Amino acid sequence: MIPLALLIALAQLGWLLSDRGGAVWIGFPIDDAWIHLDYVRGLLRDGLPTYNPGVPEAGFSSPLWLFAVMPFHLAGEALGLPPAVGVKFASWLFGLLTALSLGTLAGRLSGSKWAARLTAALPLLHPDFTFSMLSGMEVTLAAWLVMLTLSASQDERVGRCGFYAALAMLARPEAAMVPLLLAPFILIAAPRGEGGKRLVALFAPSLLLGLGWIGYTLWATGYPLPSTFLIKSSPWISLGERAGDLLLYWRVLLPRDGLDVLISSTLLFAVGMTALWRRVGWQTTGAMLIVLLGSVVATGLTRSLSLGYYVERYFHPFIPLALLFVGIGGWAAARAVASRIDNRPLRHTVAVLVALIALAPRLPDWWLTARLYQDYCLHTHWLHALLAQRLAERAPADAVIAVEGAGAMRYFADRPIIDLVGLNDHRLVRATRSPAGLTGLSDLPATHAPEHAMKVLCAMRERGASLAAVPDEWGPTLLRGFKMQRMDIAHVDHWAIAGYSGPRTVSVFTLAARPELAAACAHSAAAEASEKRIDAKSD
Fold this sequence. Notes:
Layout: H1 2-17, H2 23-26, H3 32-46, H4 63-78, H5 83-110, H6 113-125, H7 127-133, H8 139-154, H9 158-171, H10 177-189, H11 195-221, H12 227-232, H13 239-242, H14 246-253, H15 259-280, H16 282-300, H17 309-312, H18 319-338, H19 344-359, H20 363-394, E1 401-403, H21 408-413, E2 417-419, H22 429-432, H23 450-462, E3 467-471, H24 475-479, E4 482-495, E5 502-513, H25 515-538
């Protein structure tokens, strides 16, 4: 199991090292990875996860990742490496641990060391999971903890299962579904009179850690959930509205390069499910299947796949679980083909070859993903990191910067930041949150939501925003309250990060509040206070 998976993982790391000095080496594929480093730096500086110095925030939904990545970040700094390198190594390492844990579980369930070896290699051959392994994001940590949770459930070590499940929830909140979906199967398998104790052991760690996390977010922001979840999620989307996305969810989970590979992977999934059912029974097979499907559907109810990797990553922690069925199915199919051969060594060789042909995604898809990863890193570097570095050199020391992309700008510019989207500024959550789950004023034009725009403009005025680093589509909204003059610009012709390819321009503007903004803000504040009094009386 270890040699094949390790060789593939080392090849991935070699590809990363081959770009030393380029954007793949020094940058992240999305700006959110820089946000995590902003909070890591806040932990080291203030002893709390602060975004701006001294101001606790909850602009992250993976508190465990902050602590997990901190030693890698510090080690990278000590070695003089770019900030992204240590973090990418951490996500790569947790991806490798995920693959090895998956192989161990596959070997135990199938009873075959060859099935274990091949299944362990699948996440490392899956283009999307490979993307996550080198993303510097928390996806692989969550995936590893989900694997540990499922392995512990098979050992009937319910206390350990609950502990891993709680950690997985702190790595990605979508993993909170895992113990809920496992609970019926653990209860069925419990000896008479032990069911209650096992449920307590399963849920107690998640309840304790979850309440601690909720307590922190309430204390820091006044909301029971992280700002990032409140802004990004769309909890009002119905299952019926999401039905059309079910095939898209499936395409995220399984290796694919066109419909033919998707169909073959789905068939192998079905073969693996049948093989597991025959070997270990319906309870184990059903538990794995329900955890997979339930977690993916629950995640899909609050997410949209229209934004490329930016949103697809929320589904990626469950890719290895889907590949568990595919890997065992591939090995079962290979054994069936090779069973006609009498020579044992030849039979094993043929089985391995058939399994590799059946399971490995096609190279064009892998190389396409590698190119897409490079584009993501380049675009994030040009539009966020390089612009922030130039701004750090040119901006006054007392500048306050209003931004849409709040990660690299905070890390490199090292000035107070107003996050206009509200992800890292709980005071703006109500201004940017909408029932449709839209994020930012770029999704809420002033003509459609003037009250949202006014709250943001007044917050900028109140906090003395003197610069803005925003995409150009924000211009009409900001011009309502400020005189603006462009001082820097960053542009890419084909911006792929949001799931589509098109031009993207981010500009830095100097800001001067218009005289009439003060009166407009006073009027807005009076109207809001009046609404609160009316609401209080009606209650």
